[in-house]
Design brief:
four-stranded antiparallel beta sheet, 29% helix, Alkaline Phosphatase, subunit A, ten-stranded mixed beta sheet, alpha/beta, 16 strands, 466 residues, 18% strand
Length: 466
């Protein structure tokens, strides 16, 4: 057996941080994720750098901000051939490719959503993906693509992706460490059609009382594709909870396979999501593009992030540092023992840092950042423990929120005279960050000049809610 650790990365679509028992949700049933948290490390303040699917995934897999890699919005697969065929991350070096170059075997089972959906991925030795057939249902018959070849499968996608992942675990090359990425999509809309045995357990629960019913001050998109959920919030939330519990079950099945194949001691397990989600929170059904203007509410940008490796990662850790997917990229590389050439590091200009030393308590984290920064096209956010500043370039509207006094983000303090100093301080830090971590041609402030992506007006089209 190799002396490098295996890595399993669960990257679920639309799974909000608030929808996990270990993150203090008393209603949702997630025993397997809770087990991973209780016997590992739970990152309390984990974020997606961009609160929408494709760029959030790209940030994790490239280790770079959207203003560096240039992918600023979801890719409406199956709607526009130009989007499907474009090489979105050309010139980037992805996490699985870096691991491959260090001796890892790599496999993807599930959602990709970074272009060329039906084709093999050069960064993975083998792939089993959904392809570009949208919109979709969570159950039934459809075509998938195994190493680029169409195959027809019947059943819940959550189950199918799990079976393919377990098949890989059983057949993997024991002479090499592996990186297995599992991309569940059950928590993505449509929020209907999930296993009745799981959904039914939530129908008699007071679910909508758990959401923040306050209104987002900039208004809500009244999209056709979300009206049904808006008008049936309790059933929609029960379906969403059922989807989470279904994913949790399948995570447990993969953990059982890891145990039975005697891989547990040598395998790092990571569970996270590409971004957060609102299910009635602030009156929103959706994520960062659930409103116009685009939003940066905590429910949209926060993600679950749990890391587990018995014997290495100390159990029952609750880590409160601000971390995001660019940090997770660095942490995985450090944990895998991948050393990058300094010239390559300088060329890539990575914004993230590894937090692996905290997980194992080998070294404390020193001088960790006091701020979290996110972006979505020409919208930028910075927050610290108390204040959140959102700037919408070039003309606003801008927001300043006191998260201690106003955790529901209802009161905009941006225009108050007494707050101008903190606004200037946060703006200076925000501008300094993007001066360092924005490529001239990919800068989000030039978002409307970038080709093909679904900016602003396209979000009014209900076909495009990916």
């Amino acid at each position: 057996m190799t002396d490098k650790y295996n890595i399993i990365l669960f990257l679920t679509d639309d799974h909000a941080q608030w929808a996990v028992g270990a993150y203090n949700n008393p209603v949702i049933n997630t025993p397997n994720l809770d087990y991973l948290a209780n016997s590992g490390a739970l990152m309390e303040n984990a974020y997606s750098p961009t609160p929408v699917c494709s760029p959030g995934r790209a940030c994790l897999l490239t280790g770079r901000m959207a203003s560096q890699h240039g992918l600023h919005d979801y890719l409406s697969s199956g709607v526009d051939d130009a989007i499907d065929s474009h090489e979105w991350l050309r010139g980037e070096m992805l996490l699985p490719d870096l691991l491959k170059k260090s001796g890892y075997k790599t496999y993807l089972s599930g959602k990709w959503h970074l272009g060329h959906e039906a084709k093999p991925k050069a960064d993975f030795d083998h792939t089993f993906t959904m392809g570009d057939e949208y919109p979709f249902t969570h159950d039934g018959k459809r075509s998938f693509f195994e190493d680029g070849n169409p195959v027809e499968e019947v059943g819940y996608k959550t189950q199918i992706f799990t079976e393919k992942a377990i098949d890989y675990l059983r057949q993997h090359d024991h002479d090499h460490p592996f990186f297995l990425q599992v991309g569940y999509i059950g928590t993505h809309n449509p929020w209907e059609g999930h296993p009745e045995r799981l959904v039914n357990q939530y129908r008699n629960q007071a679910l909508t009382d758990k959401t923040n019913k306050s209104s987002y001050p900039f208004g809500i998109q009244n999209l056709e594709s979300t009206l049904h959920y808006r008008n049936n919030p309790h059933e929609s939330l029960a379906q969403y909870y059922g989807a989470v519990s279904h994913i949790d079950e399948k995570v447990g099945q993969i953990l059982d396979a890891v145990d039975s194949l005697e891989l547990k001691e040598n395998t790092l397990i990571i569970y996270t999501s590409d971004h957060g989600l609102n299910c009635g929170h602030h009156g929103i059904w959706g994520k960062g593009n659930g409103t116009l203007p685009l939003n940066m509410v905590e429910e949209s940008v926060r993600v679950p992030l749990i890391l587990n490796h018995p014997g290495n990662i100390l159990p029952n850790q609750h880590c409160f540092e601000f971390v995001d997917h660019t940090d997770l990229f660095q942490t995985i590389l450090a944990y895998a023992g991948v050393e990058l050439d300094q010239s390559f590091i300088q060329e890539r200009n990575y914004p993230g840092r590894s937090f692996a030393s905290q997980l194992t308590h080998e070294l404390p984290l020193k001088e960790w950042r006091k701020h979290q920064i996110c972006e979505y096209g020409d919208v930028r956010m910075i927050r610290n423990q108390q204040w959140k500043l959102i700037r919408r370039y070039p003309n606003g509207p801008n927001e300043l929120i006191d998260l201690i006094k106003d955790p529901n983000e209802e009161v905009n303090l941006f225009l108050q005279v007494e707050n101008q100093e903190i606004i200037q301080q946060l703006t200076t830090i925000l501008d300094r960050h993007f001066t360092q971590y924005a490529d001239e041609t990919n800068n989000g402030l030039n978002v409307k000049k970038l080709p093909l992506q679904n900016h602003t007006e396209a979000w009014r089209d209900p076909r495009n809610l990916h």
